[in-house]
Automatic annotation (TrEMBL):
Single GO biological process annotation from the record: regulation of DNA-templated transcription
Gene Ontology CC terms: cytoplasm
Protein name per its UniProtKB record: DNA-binding transcriptional regulator NtrC
Gene3D superfamilies hit by this protein: 1.10.8.60, 3.40.50.2300, Homeodomain-like, P-loop containing nucleotide triphosphate hydrolases
Species per Swiss-Prot/TrEMBL record: Microvirga lupini
Entry keyword set: Activator, ATP-binding, Cytoplasm, DNA-binding, Nitrogen fixation, Nucleotide-binding, Phosphoprotein, Repressor, Transcription, Transcription regulation, Two-component regulatory system
Length: 488
């Protein structure tokens, strides 16, 4: 049976009662109070084996109290609760010495489990990280449960040098998370260097990462420092790591194993001291099966996996994100805007294939193109659904083109696009045309393949020439209905 005295501080009597009952049933002795002064008196008198406190107390903010508690009793574990649920709340709780941060509302079983872990941990090691910069703009926005898990994970990772693998769809904010890990972590005084593997020609990646000596290859007229050397003492962010060629993967693995590298054309090993954060929007396990990614490198990079949820999995964050982006564009000189209820509802019902990046682009477009102070649902509908591309047209409908018997798909697409562009006269369509066209084609193509194979996804994947896991992800992302027939 667990034992220990818990000091509980929360000015909400109902919350105190519920927590008191749950902890008492778990076998703990609980003393509760509604103010920080009483909590401080108990702690200073040597009472309690663990503290649970809300951030917002009527007489003092817990973040101001925590440093005094940790100075007096550095081994006393403190669990911080908060209904604010922001990224900075989690970070401040960590850097001020909290053992754990729990966003309200939380599961009582989770609280009891955290208490058990805190009381059973080895004593003699103070908790807490280095102070984080004050008065910083919040880099991550959202109060959903999905984002709370991200905040808590980041708070635990800040005081470490562990290698992190960030996965998520394009536009979910992978580089933003990597930058937050650096800016609020122990290496914040060092440089943050980002490298996009997909943007570098394959033959130049090794030189880009490790540098080269003069004369190492044709055109190498001088010594060039690589990104590892530029990031010394800081963080190296390897974005789109799935696009790294095998030769560079082998050299990167050697760096991770031995902590040193040589420049292209060089002979003297160079010691390196960088934290590696990698990111990808691909399934690296599929690439491993296809022989395109080294399994041993995957395990070296995937020490701490961190999955960023797509925007459609956290639609409750959209109002906060919209307000945040409107504030940014207002600082850039555009007028103050807001959305009406219908417009916000429309945004929540949209699937956001481009995720947070697509939402930010939409907000910037709304702020720049529309003079109204309040953006209506009709305006949002026009922006999200205007000029649908490659939409199937009913045969023979007056005023609309149809596919001619002798016309190929390429010709039909070209004709449709010419008419689409002409509709804008002297202006151009909204940005993102390439991806909008691909989305319009992708859904009907996959749907036709599934229909032809009577819903058999293995045969449909073979027909399309894609990996089965890729097809399943596309079916899920495009929200396609799959009807399986026994005749397949």
């Amino acid at each position: 049976m667990p034992s220990g005295q818990i000091l509980l501080a929360d000015d909400d009597a109902a919350i105190r009662t519920v927590l008191n009952q749950a902890l008492s049933r778990a076998g703990y002795e609980v003393r509760s109070t509604s103010n920080a002064a009483t909590l401080w008196r108990w702690v200073s008198q040597g009472e309690g084996d663990l503290v649970i406190t809300d951030v917002m107390m009527p007489d003092e903010n817990a973040f101001d109290l925590l440093p005094r508690v940790k100075k007096l009793r550095p081994e006393l574990p403190i669990i911080v609760m908060s209904a604010q649920n922001t990224f900075m709340t989690a970070i401040k709780a960590s850097e001020r010495g909290a053992y754990e941060y729990l966003p309200k509302p939380f599961d009582l079983k989770e609280l009891v489990a955290v208490v058990g872990r805190a009381l059973s941990r080895p004593r003699g090691v103070p908790t807490g990280a280095q102070p984080v910069p004050e008065n910083e703009d919040i880099p991550l926005v959202g109060r959903s449960q999905a984002m709370q898990e991200i905040y808590r994970a980041l708070a635990r990772l800040m005081p470490t040098d562990l290698t992190v693998m960030i996965t998520g769809e394009s536009g979910t904010g992978k580089e933003l998370v990597a930058k937050a890990l650096h800016d609020y972590g122990k290496r914040r005084q060092g440089p943050f260097v980002a490298v996009n593997m997909a943007a570098i020609p394959r033959e130049l990646i090794e030189s880009e990462l490790f540098g080269h000596e003069k004369g190492a290859f044709t055109g190498a007229t001088a010594r060039n420092t690589g990104r590892f050397e530029q990031a010394e003492g800081g963080t190296l962010f390897l974005d789109e790591i799935g696009d790294m060629p095998m030769e560079a993967q082998t050299r990167l693995l050697r760096v991770l194993q031995q902590g040193e590298y040589t420049t292209v054309g060089g002979r003297v090993p160079i010691k390196t001291n960088v934290r590696i954060v990698a990111a990808t929007n691909k399934d690296l396990r599929v690439l491993i099966q296809q022989g395109l990614f080294r399994e041993d490198l995957y395990f070296r990079l995937n020490v701490v996996p961190l999955r960023l949820p797509p925007l459609r999995e956290r639609v409750e964050d959209i109002p906060d994100l919209v307000r945040h982006f409107f504030v940014l564009v207002e600082k850039e000189g555009l007028g103050r805007k807001q959305l009406d209820v219908e417009a916000m509802d429309r945004l929540k019902r949209y699937r956001w294939p481009g995720n947070v990046r697509e939402l930010e682009n939409l907000v910037r477009r709304l702020a720049a193109l529309y003079p109204q102070d309040t953006i209506t649902g009709a305006i949002v509908d026009a922006e999200l659904d205007s000029q649908p591309l490659l939409a199937p047209q009913p045969a023979g409908k007056p005023g609309q083109p149809t596919l001619q018997a002798s016309e190929g798909l390429s010709d039909a697409v070209e004709r449709h696009l010419n008419e689409y562009f002409s509709g804008f006269r002297d202006s151009l369509p909204p940005p993102g045309l390439y991806h909008r066209i691909l989305r319009e084609i992708e859904g009907p193509l996959i749907g036709a393949a599934l229909a032809a194979t009577r819903g058999n996804q293995i045969r449909a994947a073979e027909l399309l020439g894609v990996n089965r896991n890729t097809l399943r992800k596309k079916v899920r992302d495009l929200d396609l209905m799959v009807v399986r027939s026994n005749r397949a």
